[in-house]
Amino acid sequence: MADTVELPVLDLPRLSLKEGVDTSRPIPILIKVAKDGETPNVFYAPNAERFAVDLKGAEYLERALAYHSPEARERAANIRAAKALIAAPTITPEEWAASHDWAKWVCDGEETYAASIEELVEHLADIGAATPSYCYVTTARGFDFDLEDAIETYLMDEHHEDAECNDLPKLIDFFNEWKKTETVTTYWPGSTVVVIDPARFADEIAAAKTLVAEAEAA
């Protein structure tokens, strides 16, 4: 029995090919680091660890990696949050307490909800969180489920794109009438901000504007 021979394997996570290449069989590839004056036959994007047939493609792979990296996604999320905070309408705690325009709950924008600003601040202090300079009003949402979209998604995922129910309109009409009997309510952060500490809130707005300005100048 012949000895097992381990063949050297070049790990190419992905290789872009030009049109017309016969992909029904193994494709012979010649790759090496091009010396000065040599014409490369493939370009490697080192950070993306991918290959492309031209420089433009390799540069795209590098940009795409930078754009989709965890750090880039976190920065993009921070910039979106900063823009939203800058654009948010603001009210005082007294205005919130006296108004009937919002549900009588406030939240920190994450997972902490309370029936009053004092209760919100106290709860955050109890769990060791810093006192916020602002919080969000909340809006009430009733039972809302898009049955038609759910059914279409199911048909696409489990059957095929041309599949359809025999009498979907009748089901939708029944479902819409049934929804009117449901009283379940949830509360979600609104866009309006209740300013708890004006001085610290002004500092946070200034920091948000700086972050947005830096992003737009980049």
Global shape: flat
Structural class: alpha+beta
How much is the average pLDDT?
Answer: 82
Radius of gyration: 28 Å
Order of helices and strands: EEHHEHEEHEHHEH
Oligomer: single chain
Strand content: 15-25%
Number of strands: 7
Biggest beta sheet summary: 5 strands, mixed
User: How much helix, percentage-wise, in residues?
Assistant: 40-55%
Number of helices: 7
Strand arrangement within the widest β-sheet reads: 3-7-6-4-5
Q: What's the end-to-end separation, in Å?
A: 64 Å
Which regions contain 5 or more consecutive residues with pLDDT less than 50? Answer: none
Write a structural description:
The structure is a single chain. By secondary structure, the chain is α+β, with helices and mostly antiparallel strands. Helices cover about 40% and strands about 15% of the residues. The chain has seven helices and seven strands; from the N terminus they run E-E-H-H-E-H-E-E-H-E-H-H-E-H. Strand 4 and strand 5 (about 115) form a beta hairpin. Helix 2 (about 70-85) packs across helix 7.
